[in-house]
Amino acid sequence: MPFRTLTVAIVAALASPVAAAATAADARDLDTVLVTANRAESTLGDTIVPAQVIDRAEIERTQARDLPELLRGRAGIQIANQGGPGKLSSVFMRGSESDHVLVLVDGVRVGSATAGLASFQDIPVDQIERIEIVRGPRSSLYGSEAIGGVIQIFTRRNTGVIRPHARVGMGSHHLREASAGLGGRAGRGWFGVDAAFQRTDGIDSCRGSGTLFQGCFVDEPDRDGYRNRSFNARGGVELTQGLTLEGNVLHADAFNEYDGSVFGGNEADNVQQVAGGKLTYAPSEVVTLTAQAGRAYDKSSTYFRDIDAGTRVDVGQIDTRRDTASLQADFGLAPTQRFSLGFDWMSDNIESDTAYALTARDNFAVFSDYTARFGAHRVQAGVRHDDNEQFGGHTTGSLGWGLDFENGLRLNASAATSFKAPTFNDLYFPFGSGNPDLEPERAKTANLGLAQYRDTWNWSINVFESRVDDLIFLDSNFVPQNIQEARIRGAELTFATTLAGFDLSTELSHVDPRDRSDSANNGNLLARRARNSGRLDIDRSLGDFRVGTTLRASSSRFDNATNTVRVAGHGTLDLRAAWAFNPDWTLEARATNVLDKDYETIAWYYQPGREYGLALRWSPTAR
Fold first, then answer.
1. What are the strands, taking DSSP E only, across 285-335?
2. Please, which pLDDT band fits residue 16 given cuts at 50, 70 and 90?
3. Pairing of β 101-105 and β 149-155
4. How many helices (H) and strands (E) does the chain have?
5. The pLDDT of residue 212
6. CB within 8 A of 308, min separation 6: which ones?
7. Using CA atoms, how far apart are residues 440 and 472, in angstroms rounded to an integer?
8. Residue 307: pLDDT band with limits 50, 70, 90
9. Which of 144, 294, 378, 544 meets the CB 3.0–4.6 Å disulfide criterion with 276?
10. What φ, ψ does residue 304 adopt, rounded to 5°?
């Protein structure tokens, strides 16, 4: 279905007076607590910047089998994928670059220090408890990378009675998956352990091209499989009244096949590992002190498969490590006011078979944030100074204001500055593909939002503009350069209600990301970002049964800066059903891309056609 048709249909549904007659609430809960937006506990109702929470119940309801699938079509988010499950997936938020998204796992910053990207495709959804998404810049709290937004992933939590859970599944392309875990609370302590496995024979990821710098450079019509094995452990204890110690580790080991290139290699072993610990001390209701430290590994080993000899030839290995530590104090100045003061330290390190001119750098930062509510008014103000060992000092700030009206109507306005330090690949990638003279990218963003929250439905509209200076892009020789400026304008619409027993939610995004440099590309759209995208979710419970559908759509996009390679728009329809035939057992079935649409999100790289899946979930209820 064309995006324009989908948009008209959804807007017509929203405008219908029947929507106001909804009788049940599956809408956004304003009391939902999140920590990412303000780096301290706050509710969605008190958050001025656009934010969203995806909890475990929604993950299971949608039956998404990987993180890119779960995120695709969300407000402000677009995905560009290189050929199906397990393949490189770039996340663009609000039209910014894919490395302008800060990703945290349990409070620990993750992502490759060389490529600047988080491996979304390798973080298994079976290990995720909830996801918090903040749209728009948060550099005043987190520093570099948070230009387009922040995505924080929380691994499985068990704070109730000790209970096990398990799931097994199978599907198209010889998909096999299984997961199991155990966790809960006993006395002053809590713990949890989970393991998950997923394997698929995959699809032919690339339609190939023997032309240099097009597609995957070679014609290699074969299946490109993927395998992921993961483990997650966490635990905590209340040492004394108000003093809590907790820790967690997530390890994901992936094997990926992809179509080869002129640079060699068509197999890769990838490891994502995140470990962290946190000590929290709350001597009173108005003071909370938090110390946190973490380490994130991103390891990638590339191989070439010699079919004739039956051996793997080592092509290269790049391992990066990010160490982080923070101290933060939160003060309740009054029942409706909070002031936070903190210190951050981060160290990036590289171990590689390929020589980099620089393999380590540190960053020190101090930040403060103030939030308050005065009657119908809400305010937020923050400032942060980063001292980067390589690029010197950068100060960023944010300012927000909200006003509540009658009938749940709310107006929000915010403005913020942000920056992004160049990656090691940008600066020092070998073979003449790095540019050590690059400057950090800097951005200014303004957001204006209007929303209404009722017992049975809610909606929100946000419009924004970002201006990015010194944006990094690849020139005609594939060398990174700072272009003078990019201007990004956009709007987002979200709506959720329950109508005649159907749970309805929709998220629509429009973005206009333009190159504003003094070059031949001036006025062109930035690559791989569609101007329009969205999704519509409809679910219905029928006793022990639940059925649902997801419709996603995206308009066309250009695959290059010169806007000469166009990738067509597309729409996909997914169906799902679940049968709780026993209080402890649920049978799940799904069909994705049921109309078997041929489409791409990156030129030359296929996306899966029609697929089916069947799974059995065991989750004993407390007795």
1. 287-306, 311-334
2. very low
3. parallel
4. 5, 33
5. 61
6. none
7. 8
8. low
9. 294
10. -110, 130
Mean pLDDT score, 84-99: 96
Q: What is the full DSSP assignment across 411-461?
A: EEEEEEEEEEPPPHHHHH-TTTT--TT---EEEEEEEEEEEEE-SSEEEEE
Environment class of residue 116 by beta-carbon count within 10 Å: exposed (0-12), middle (13-18) or buried (19+)?
Answer: buried
SS3 46: helix
Between the CA of residue 478 and those of 429, 435, 486, what are the distances in Å? 11, 10, 19
3-state SS, residue 120: helix
Longest Cα–Cα distance of the chain, Å, equals: 75
The one-letter code for the residue type at 6 is L
Tell me which of 94-98, 123-127, 209-213, 564-568 is least confident.
Answer: 209-213
Per-residue pLDDT tens over the stretch 106-143: 999 999 999 999 999 999 999 999 999 999 999 999 99
CA dihedral 53, 56, 59, 62 (to 10 degrees): -100
| Angular region, 63: left φ>0, alpha ψ -120 to 50, beta rest | left
Strands 441-453 and 33-34: unpaired
3-state DSSP helix/strand/coil % of the chain, to nearest 5: 10, 60, 35
pLDDT grade for 211, boundaries at 50, 70 and 90: low
Q: Which two tokens stand for residue 602?
A: 């990156």
Report if pTM > 0.85.
yes
- The CA-based angle 288-293-299, given to 5 degrees, is 150
Name residue, tokens 């220090």: 113
Q: Provide the token pair at 560.
A: 């290059």
pLDDT band, residue 266 (cuts 50/70/90):
confident
CA distance 87 to 128: 20
Candidates 359, 343, 361; CA nearest to 351 is 359
Q: Is 17 helix (H, G, I), strand (E, B) or coil?
A: helix
Give the CA count within 13 Å in the CB-facing half-sphere of 429.
Answer: 16
